[in-house]
Sequence to fold (400 residues):
Amino acid sequence: MADFTPPGEPRRAAGRQGGKPQPALSQPSHPRPSGERQPCGASSEFAPRQSPHDLPRPLPRQAYAAIDLGTNNCRLLIARPADRNFVVIDAFSRVVRLGEGLAHTGELSQAAMDRAVGALRVCSDKLRRRNVHLARSVATEACRRARNGGEFIERVRQETGIRLDIISAQEEARLAVLGCHILLEDGIGPAVIFDIGGGSTELVLIEPGAPVPRIIDWQSVPWGVVSLTETVNASFGGGGEEGDQAARLARYGEMRRVVAESFAEFAERIAPRRTPDQRLLGTSGTVTTLASLHLDLPQYDRKAVDGLIVPADSMRDIATRLSSMSPDERRTLPCIGQERADLVVAGCAILEAILDIWPAPRLGVADRGIREGILRGLMSADAEGFAAQAALRRLKQGGE
Fold:
């Protein structure tokens, strides 16, 4: 596997560096009627829009894996190629809050690192059991910012055998686009894809087209649901969200102000690109949670949410309602519960700031992103390698 070594075996540790770009699967677009939901297939299958003969195929029995260690979550996806698509054969996700306290100390705490290593041990076991052929494991904003990020990466390698690559914000944005752009509504002109993470938010202005969208402009800001919550709460005396409704709304207003200020330059750059048919696609826990509330789901259902198109006004209404609730009130809502109750408001503030600078009438919702982008890159590169080897063999046979 590309980035997995059994514990105890020597291997060079990953340092602070941008990720190595992977070739993307070719994905020509074709007309698709727009509507409330976009077709996205079964929950375990991701079908890129492609012509049937434009790429060599990786070996169908091989398993590929992607690990995304973010500021708030640790996620794993293991899949096998299926024709021109891939089918997920195993997955794992756990809230680890790796970036907890980072905004104040500049370092990853011992408790947070222990939680993350525990989750990565589970990932390591799954990689072994599934006999993964090729894997890529990435870490994002928390490890980019932390003074002890490199030490943590080395600890992970020694204790789990997983070699994490601390990718750049630009690579993070590229992978998110590669993983979810097929869910973008059909239309004419540029569109914006965004990813609200735990420690940062990436916004990408794209020109849709084949084989993959062309990135026109992009921006990453250091505000995700964890970093924004901790920073704004500290400015209000560190009292969290306790207090009356007026105090909660004041915090929410400050969150929106902080994020809007960070988006200002990007907003100015993309303003001339606005069209009457603006399109917007979001991949994050925030948008999937709000989409679940929009559908009034009793519990989260990926099949119902991934590919959903929601009126932007509905998302704003839900955000406004959540921002005025107490933490206890939010915990009682389906699809929020204990894990998201204290962070979802920051996600709402970031989402509203995005809607302010790119006021699309509808918002596409994607429960896919970096991991799927990694898998497409791995499978594409592997397929091209197989094709090159086959071509070389044919040349040798022809010369004999």
About this structure: The domain at 52-167+371-388 is CATH 3.30.420.40 (Nucleotidyltransferase; domain 5). The chain has two domains: 52-167+371-388, 179-366. The longest helix spans residues 370-399. The radius of gyration is 21 Å.
